[in-house]
């Protein structure tokens, strides 16, 4: 009989010593102790996760020291963020509330703070699109022999069409599939549709979505250290403020 010691089991990191509110996170990210912020987000260009990352960067007012690195999957985003170990570097990995494998990513990586940052943003208009050459072919409806390229999460939106769904890694990648002639239809975003020269057939709308940007590995301690220094400076300055009053 084989025995396995309990020391092999992981534990979720605590948030003690880390910023919690949006204001605290902003002050920490603006700290000179944090020299570079890398947001690893789902690509290619035009995904909602990457757009939400840019929105957060601008809202935090840290664009001068931030970069968005596009990745094939959220899992790849996490892996690349985990590998970052530079002086004053903070790496974030992006997911969203409706990512179909979010629970696996969360529980398979207990060392990560997957929901460290939340960014609420209306989705870039979700839509069914096709290439200009296919528009006339659907005057009487969509042929059931056509394929719809889609990320797994929004794929149920076309369940009533009766078409085969070709699963891809992102909404922007779905647009690429149609632009390259590998599928007739796609569920994509307005930005991806426009940049690929596709035609919108149906709008699913722009509901609000919650996006998450997590930290893992050395980045956790970089953020904790920067926040601790800010708190230390605040306590050092407080007596001076009271004396002035």
Shape: elongated
Mean pLDDT across the residues is 94
Please give the order of strands in the largest beta sheet: 2-1-3-10-4
The CATH architecture classification of the largest domain is 3-Layer(aba) Sandwich
CATH third-tier fold name of the largest domain: D-Maltodextrin-Binding Protein, domain 2
Indicate the CATH class of the largest domain. Answer: Alpha Beta
| Total E-strand runs | 10
Tell me what the structure shows.
The chain is of the alpha/beta class and 245 residues long. It folds into two domains: 14-122 and 209-234, D-Maltodextrin-Binding Protein, domain 2; 126-205, D-Maltodextrin-Binding Protein, domain 2 (3-Layer(aba) Sandwich), CATH 3.40.190. 33% of the residues lie in helices and 26% in strands. The protein is built from seven helices and ten strands. A five-stranded mixed beta sheet has the order 2-1-3-10-4. It has a five-stranded mixed beta sheet with strand order 7-6-8-5-9. Helix 1 (22-29) crosses helix 7 and helix 5 (171-179) packs parallel to helix 6 (190-196). The longest helix has 27 residues, at 218-244. It is elongated and about 70 Å long. The model is unreliable at 240-245 (pLDDT under 50).
Features:
single chain; 245 residues; alpha/beta; D-Maltodextrin-Binding Protein, domain 2; 2 domains; 5-stranded mixed β-sheet; disordered C terminus
